[in-house]
Amino acid sequence: MNSLCLALVLIVVWGYLAGATLATLRFARRTRGAAAPTGAGPPVSVLKPLHGAEPGLYQNLRSFADQDYPDFQLVLGVRNRADDAVPIARALIAKRPRRDIALVIDPSVGGSNLKVANLENMLPAARHELIVLADSDMRVTPDYLAIVTAPLADPATGIVTCLYKAVPTGGPWSRLAALHINFGFLPGALVGDAITVGHGCFGATIALRREVLERIGGFARIRDELADDYRMGQAVRELGLKTVLSSYIVENRVSESSLASLWRHELRWARTSRMMAPAGFAGSVVTHTAMLTALAVAAFGSGVVAWGFVLISLGLRWISALAIARWLGLPRGGLWLLPVRDALSFAVFLGSFCGRSVLWRDQLFRVEPGGRMSVEGD
Fold first, then answer.
1. At 273, which CATH number?
2. Does pLDDT of 122 surpass 90?
3. pTM score, two decimals?
4. Which CA distances in Å does 121 have to 76, 116, 213, 220, 227?
5. Count of Cβ atoms closer than 10 Å to residue 142 Cβ
């Protein structure tokens, strides 16, 4: 009986690892065949909510200002005139005087999600019908806008989104954070897309028509949602429109400076996912290949042969990561840390079940069932 239980665990975790690797190969082939559309596209307004002078912010913003696109506007928004991002935004405007760049400073708040409040304040400054939202820690190449907006030419497409790959800015904690994004989140999201159950919508990029945004109730609909990107995609699908995963992968600059910041960040992701989709989040336990193998061997196995399965799982994990890195052009440095990364990911998974509070931008929130949030103590 113990041997059967061990065999079942191995079949499940190795099967997931194989599926994630194949899903990544399938996406990589689609990405290689994609090219930026030729000809003039419709005008676009890009909204970038800012908060603080995070590492590399100027270079991130400059990559959005330097798009090879005929007609676009860049709207930068902060809630506080004393925000450290303001001098950086003004420097970009001064360096790119021929670009259409607007800076909105408005402290108005309509809900508990301050990022969404920022977007609400910025929207009146957006002049064009096509709207692109992108987080401040993303960096892109000049063909980005042309690629991500192209699917919106189809009236059946309601929203376009992008996956993101991580590039650490230095230090062991940013490297561990990048390993999670590149070899945990990214292949998992591609599995969801391949079996059409993920329907992910990611803050790395959200592109939609203004009339679609208005039909879902605008940003007011997601004022109190912690996972505002996910909820926006869900609202658009409720209109009967498609969510399209772009072939473009945005570059995320990861700058975690300590274990504490890394833990808080990933715990916020995990608790939000658990509250929004508890069954799916519980099922994601199968993604922890090495840790589940070790636990299964400890519970059901005995002897050197059984513990050899742990080494096999680690080997398969490294092989899968190397293949994914090669196909998607991901950083390979630090892959020897994968066992440490996997142990930390499993600890975050377990920790997500031990409370509902999350710390986000120095404020404590309580995540309610369904993903809505309130300020802790209200």
1. 3.90.550.10
2. yes
3. 0.88
4. 10, 9, 15, 11, 19
5. 12
